[in-house]
Design a protein that fits this description.
The complex is a heterodimer. Chain A is α/β, with parallel strands linked by helices. Chain A is built from ten helices and ten strands. The longest helix of chain B is centred in the middle third of the chain and has 39 residues. The radius of gyration of chain B is 22 Å and the shape is globular. Classes of the chains: A alpha/beta, B mainly alpha. The complex binds adenosine-5'-triphosphate and magnesium ion. Chain B: GO terms for molecular function: phospholipid transporter activity.
Chain lengths: 271, 262
């Protein structure tokens, strides 16, 4: 019998139309530095949200809080209507099984060959045998535009963009329910960037997954996002449709999306 | 005036609190790691890799250390014992000091330099490049995956290494005894084994297992808690080697005291 509180929550969530991910009043400080200062975020099930914001504005920290890698100081995070911060460790691990994450720097295991990196989660969950893992890895690598032979290399032998694509393959190989992409297309050439964007859209549409992506690339944001949110000084300052980026009618967002130096956002340049 | 008086007190207080915090953190870390050894899944592949790294690749370093120690020991005890016409006891002195004391301690210090540093550097790099976080998101407990197999491997590998070191050390002593000091080979070996007791060997192997645990624990703990890029990893590596070396020497006294009291 698997009557976990998460599943009860799921039923309740579907009944009430609660968002898949709901973040309220998230605060986190590192020492004296208040990085998150009350982040509120809602992502509907099956939707793709892009998060924008200046460098160091706390985008990665927000995502790490949601997946439980960083403990926030205050606030609540609900997934399927269940507060993950108050979950038992076991429930939280079960929740983690359904979540995928692409780290900003790839974070590939350099002691393992690429194929083992890609199938790591499937192997860890015993969903696949080691014999079949190579074939499965080749299949997922093909989706991110890499040849099957790449599977036998070690991550250190790959270019930066290839590492990113392997990391992406690893994040989606286990077909997670919720996926986080931290700058999926940074460091890729424009064509490969578009291919990866297509792949992300595909994941969301085909698997019915819910995605949160961080990106600095506006074209990419419009391609992959249903909604967009802008974070500034530790708060969400704007949320709206991703298509409106560039002409959103919000001075901050427009300055950011169009890359203008003049505007309400003053970049702090230290000498 | 008060400030001058209170300042050293505050410093001592802070240092004590810091030491307690570190000790507590290491103890909790060790407990958690050990608890993973008795709960599946088990990572045999990783255990085996760590075991080979410790037992096989440390063999040359440990062997050389042991042989030279045995040789020096034979020479030095000859110098001393000849003054009392007690040369015949040299073989027993060499074997007992090696098996009870020098074998485990010197082998562990060498392994601390090799393995403690490599554990700290590898796990520290994984920490600062988010690989440990990535493990968590890939349904794998990093303590179980990274720490537990290494601890077990070190606890099993160290006694084996020390056993080899004991044998090679005795051979070093025998070499000097027969070639340089004029002992008859058979007589040297006979007096080596005549006075050797099981407890001598056993206490040395227990020490080795404890030191192995300490080396792996400090290596993994320092790596696991490293922060701040390459510099942080460098610091973790240094701390791992220094901390495990000091702990080995301190625990050596404690263990000797325990065996002595029996
Ligand atoms: N582990 C940590 N310890 C201390 N400070 C941290 C830590 N992680 C993040 N920070 C700080 O939090 C702030 C936000 O970091 P974060 O990584 O979320 O930025 P970001 O929005 O993802 O930026 P970028 O677009 O450059 O990736 C930074 O100023 C950083 O210095
Ligand atoms: Mg970031």
């Amino acid at each position: 019998m698997r009557d976990t509180s998460a599943e009860q929550g799921l039923g309740a969530a579907m009944a009430a139309g609660v968002p898949k991910i709901r973040v309220r009043g998230l605060r986190k400080a590192f020492g004296p530095k208040q990085v998150l200062d009350g982040v509120d975020l809602d992502v509907a099930a099956g939707h793709s949200m892009v998060v924008l914001g200046g460098s160091g504005s706390g985008k990665s920290v927000t995502i790490k809080c949601i997946i439980g890698l960083i403990d926030p100081d205050e606030g609540s995070i609900e997934i399927d209507g269940v507060d993950v911060l108050r979950m038992s460790r076991r429930d939280r691990e079960a929740m983690g099984d359904r979540i995928g994450m692409l780290f900003q720097n790839g974070a590939l295991f350099d002691s393992l060959p690429v194929w083992e990196n890609v199938c790591f989660k499937l192997l860890a969950q015993n969903r696949i045998s080691r014999d079949k893992a190579r074939d499965k890895a080749a299949e997922v690598l093909a989706q991110v535009g890499l040849a099957a032979s790449v599977g036998d290399l070690s991550p250190a032998e790959l270019s930066g963009g290839m590492q990113k694509r392997v990391a992406l393959a690893r994040a989606i190989a286990a077909q997670p329910d919720i996926i986080f992409f931290d700058e999926p297309t940074t460091g890729l050439d424009p064509i490969m960037g578009a291919v990866i964007d297509g792949l992300i859209v595909d994941c969301v549409k085909r698997l019915g997954a819910t995605a949160i992506s961080i990106t600095h690339d506006m074209a990419s944001a419009r391609r992959i996002g249903d909604t967009a949110a802008m974070i500034h000084k530790g708060r969400i300052v704007w949320t709206g449709p991703a298509q409106s980026l560039g002409h959103a009618g919000n001075a901050m967002v427009d300055q950011f999306a169009n890359g203008q130096r003049e505007g309400p956002i003053q970049m702090e340049l230290r000498r | 005036m008060a400030a001058i008086l209170l300042d050293p007190l505050a410093t001592i207080g802070r240092a004590t609190l810091g030491a307690c915090r570190v000790t507590g953190s290491v103890a909790l870390f060790a407990l958690e790691a050990v608890s993973h050894l008795i709960r599946p899944p088990f990572y045999l592949r990783l255990f085996w890799r760590a075991f080979i790294e410790i037992a096989w690749f440390s063999l040359p370093v440990v062997a050389l250390t042991a042989v030279f120690t045995g040789m020096v020991l034979a020479l030095q005890s000859y110098t001393g014992f000849a003054r009392f016409n007690a040369q015949s006891t040299i073989a027993s002195v060499v074997v007992i000091s090696l098996v009870r004391e020098l074998g485990p301690v010197l082998a562990s210090l060498m392994v601390a330099g090799r393995i403690g540093a490599s554990f700290a550097a590898e796990i520290g790099t994984m920490r600062v490049t988010d690989q440990i976080d990535a493990l968590t998101t890939l349904s794998t407990n990093p303590m179980k995956y990274l720490v537990a197999p290494r601890l077990l491997a070190a606890v099993i590998a160290m006694p084996l290494l020390v056993l080899v070191a004991d044998i090679l050390g005795v051979m070093g002593g025998w070499l000097i005894g027969t070639l340089k000091l004029g002992f008859v080979s058979a007589a040297y070996l006979k007096s080596t084994f005549d006075y050797l007791q099981f407890d001598d060997v056993f206490s040395g192997l227990v020490k080795a297992a404890v030191f192995g645990f300490v080396i792996a624990l400090m290596g993994t703990w320092c790596g696991y808690n490293s922060r701040g890029g390459a510099q942080g990893v460098g610091g973790a590596t240094t701390s791992a080697v220094v901390a495990s070396s000091i702990l080995i020497l301190a625990l050596d006294y404690v263990l000797t005291e325990i065996f002595f009291a029996r």
